[in-house]
Amino acid sequence: MTDEKRQIVNINRRLRTSYWLMLAAIYAGAFLYGPAYSSMPVGQWIASCLVVGFFVSLPLLIVIMVVIRPTAGGVSWMSFLLLGYLIYGIVLIFSPRGLLAGLMLTGTTLSTFIYAIAWLRPLKKAAKARAKTKQPG
Q1: Is this prediction's pTM over 0.90?
Q2: H/E/C letters for each residue in the chain?
């Protein structure tokens, strides 16, 4: 396997891992900033935290096929979606009881966004090279 091919496989693996860590951070955060533990019976508390986590992660679950089989357009759209999660994580940092959940979400979102940009970078370079060769004069 060539070095370039190995690097692409590595970026794909890191993008997937970061995506799954981001989903885990969303669900863990729902337990941290969701309803207070003592506010309801344990079973109901767990169910309500899982429902909050599901609704927060729903847009990410829509792009799950992009993570499994990345395409240039899909990764581009996913990176736009990640910016919304980044803003949500920053807002969560400054909310009551949301510091740890916000830090987890912001960190995993930033890493996923960086890997998405790293995945798209070779394609952008190739497009620039093609455009340069097509320019007259």
Answers
A1: no
A2: CCHHHHHHHHHHHHHHHHHHHHHHHHHHHHHHHCCCHHHCCHHHHHHHHHHHHHHHHHHHHHCHHHHHCCCHHHHHHHHHHHHHHHHHHHHHHCCCCCHHHHHHHHHHHHHHHHHHHHHHHHHHHHHHHHHHHHCCC
